[in-house]
Amino acid sequence: MASCGVAPPIAVARPPSARGSFVRFPLPRIRCLPRGRSGGPSQANPRLFLSFPLLRRRGCRLSPTSAVDSDSSDLPVHQDLKLLGFLFGCLQSSVFREWDAMTARFAGAANVPFLLLQLPQIILNYRNLVAGNKAALFAVPWLGMLTGLLGNLSLLSYFAKKRETEAVLVQTLGVLSTYAVISQLAVAESMPLPHFIVTSVVIGAGLVLNFLNYFGWLSEGVWRFWEDFITVGGLAVLPQVMWSTFVPFVPNSILPGLFSSIGAVVAVVMARTGKLSEKGAKFVGSISGWTATLLFMWMPVAQMWTSYLNPDNIQGLSAISMLLAMIGNGLMIPRALFIRDLMWFTGSSWAAFLHGWGNLVCMYCCDSISREFFFAATLGLFLWLGIALWRDTIAYGHGSPIKSLEELVSGK
């Protein structure tokens, strides 16, 4: 342990290079003293000592720079700037590390609402299967579940590559829970058996490859092939799902998925053969993550479109499920903002606001939920987002949350 103190007032000197009456204040050196040593806070300048509470708690002591040293020409201004940066780092590092750990715990805690989100459906399907009521499982669209499953798998690959442990656990849970529902649909013969077999092979291979890569046991060539596979698959599925949402207002066709898959294959081949620029190849590498995010972003749009066409069906939505979706995605927003991951932040924010809160708005307008429930959920979401922005601003030492959002968008 160490105790802190501040030495007598800092000497002031005019460097030879100074112009006019400008006086440079040399910054203090910082050192730590063991507890019980003389020269503690009682012998220091109390006003200066109290102005650095974080230094006082961290065991740092300010030592003055002598007038002789400051007058020397071999102490350039940039050294003072380095010391100033170290001083601010000492003040902010504790807050930064604390918020870093808290955002990671928030992302890990998102497993709880996401698990509860699918668990009621799994239990209900099991009871219907045991009772021999297979027809009840046809109410669950297997194509929509498959879309969410592929989105989870693609995002698992994205976060496994970035070594984001909490997000990897969330996406793995999403893959396993959704696959459990799809397996029940296959048992009830709601999902065609060939489709289920292919899906099972892809999911099994994807889980194994992702975890081998996460622990560094997978060759780069195999991982690159997997990334190309999910890139082509994601680009083939996304336009087709978006097109199918508006059937019968648009003709039923497989052309959107066919054209986009051909374009994806061409882009991947050009990237691997060096036909694209470095920026273009980097863009192709990020497609799989963005297509997975867009798949999740499209799911609430499809749900709200269905509710718009058939307002009576909104009574079948579960307000608790929508609330759990809002909470689960909302818990991941601080982490995505903290590490400046625009894709993760976009997907989590969109899902929290549109899939969770947006559907609650529709349910409130249709008198499906009470006013107290809706306003409590609304207040909680906006208050949580405000706290995340405020704490991120403090952790990075910015003067406004706008700066954090600018860094998020620019990637700097």
From TrEMBL:
A GO CC term attached to the entry: chloroplast envelope
InterPro entries documented for this protein: MEX1/MEX1-like
Keywords (A to Z) from UniProt: Membrane, Transmembrane, Transmembrane helix
GO molecular function, one term: maltose transmembrane transporter activity
Residues that span the membrane, as ranges: 106-124, 136-160, 167-187, 193-217, 229-247, 253-271, 283-302, 314-333, 373-390
Keyword Chloroplast appears in the UniProt entry: no
PANTHER family for this protein: MALTOSE EXCESS PROTEIN 1, CHLOROPLASTIC-RELATED
Protein name listed in UniProt: Uncharacterized protein
Species annotation: Spirodela intermedia
